[in-house]
Predict the structure of 4-nitrophenylphosphatase.
Amino acid sequence: MTISSSPIKITAREHVQALLDQYDNFLFDCDGVVWLGETLIPGMVEAIEYLESKGKKVVFVTNNSSKSRDEYVEKFHRLGFKSFRKQQVYPTCYAAVSNLDQLGVQPGAKVWVLGDAGIMHELKEGGYQALGGTDTRLNQAFDPDHPLLEVDPEVQAVIVGSTKDFNYMRIALTLQYLLHNNKSIPFIGANIDRTYPGPHGLILPAGGSVVSYMEYTANRTFLNVGKPSTQFLDTIVAENGFDRSRTLMVGDTLYTDIKFGNDGKLGAGAGSLLVLTGGTKPEDLAHLLHLPEDYEDPHSMTPLYVMDSFGAFVDILKG
Ligand SMILES: C[C@H](OP(=O)(O)O)C(=O)O
Ligand SMILES: [Mg+2]
């Protein structure tokens, strides 16, 4: 099946049954698909339990680097996913750390972080020394004479992701590392998302806004390790032994999730399902469908399927 110009709307029992027949493996985005902040999207626990009861493999791929895999396990359990295991979640803090080795940065090395606890914890778990990030000494107002502003020459990489502690001390220091040694230290960005859907209908700044800030300031290009990176998908497919033609990506964002599934050649020609519980509204999709053919490859961001909420899966199936 190829990507149609208009996605197929999943509303009836036969549509849901077709998904079950067509796919063995389901990749789920988290923010806007499974939850909004700490609020579970109704029906998601039942939907995942149903898929697993039918022998389907389920993994979660999130561009949100604020939590480590261990912290995601706690969150999934807290929200009712009782049998959830660490191997089922791929946050970009983990992807960022997994990339270090290939960039020649070996465990034991010092890595500078502009980001939240997830990146710090994954670095430590990978055997790296994490600097910056959540260090509370950086919470103070900018002072050019502060000893912390001295660059540590042993730092071998910089990872930038979302942070709720975005202040001038942190960005000024991060800039020093990005410029250090003739801009030779690898610059990893955890994601490209501008925003993410928060609780109470709030649209909140996401990691991509922080990464882009640093990219512009340092006049450097970062390596994006998150969706829609095809290398990220290759790793997930290989680690789980998934058959791409029997794999579906479910997400709420066109330029990350849907592009990830389409560019990654999931499904038999296409394997992406957009839900409308997060950042994308029907009018955004309509706009995309009317873009000129040559506009930044609109097909790569066109989902094969669309569904109001994946949480409706079991209800639709039961009629
Ligand atoms: C939006 C994104 O999370 P995801 O939707 O990939 O779980 C993020 O928090 O930057
Ligand atoms: Mg999302």
Q: What stands out?
A: Residues 29-32, 62-64, 162, 191, 193, 196, 206-207, 253 surround L-phospholactate (ligand 1) (CB under 6 Å). The domain at 93-224 is CATH 3.40.50.1000 (Rossmann fold). The chain has a mean pLDDT of 94. The chain has two domains: 8-60+228-318, 93-224.
